[in-house]
Design brief:
71% of the residues lie in helices and 0% in strands. It has 116 residues and is mainly α. The protein has one domain: Arc Repressor Mutant, subunit A (Orthogonal Bundle), CATH 1.10.10. The N and C termini lie close together (11 Å).
């Protein structure tokens, strides 16, 4: 799972140092939000279930998500903390996370289920 997340981050942030990738992965896997499963649950609870399900399902196209949708689902506090860790402003962090999250979740769920 972590390899898929790292590869997705590297595709979105090609000039980022490995340290930046590590910080982003740690933020996504933060136990305070329940890790990747917690992020997915928050997105589903915010009405983005069909979008998230497209990332997890096998053989389907990953539906996009916007930075604004992500910020609304995860909350400004989480996005601001992520931005601080990455050295971006919150809007940039939300947009970058939104760009990589569909592929990262897809890579982390090759069998169509979230890892335990």
């Amino acid at each position: 799972m972590l390899e898929g997340l790292a590869n997705s981050l590297k595709s979105v942030l090609p000039d980022a140092a490995d340290a930046l990738i590590d910080k982003a992965m740690n933020a996504i896997n933060d136990p305070s939000v329940g890790g990747l499963t917690g992020v997915v649950d928050k997105l589903r609870a915010s009405g983005l279930g069909d979008t998230v399900n497209s990332w997890i399902a096998t053989g389907t196209k990953n539906l996009p998500i916007t930075g604004d949708q992500l910020r609304a689902a995860l909350g400004n506090e989480y996005v601001s903390a992520l931005a601080s860790k990455l050295g971006f402003d919150p809007s940039q962090a939300a947009d970058k996370l939104a760009a990589m999250l569909p592929d990262a979740v897809d890579a982390a769920t090759p069998n169509g289920t979230l890892p335990g």
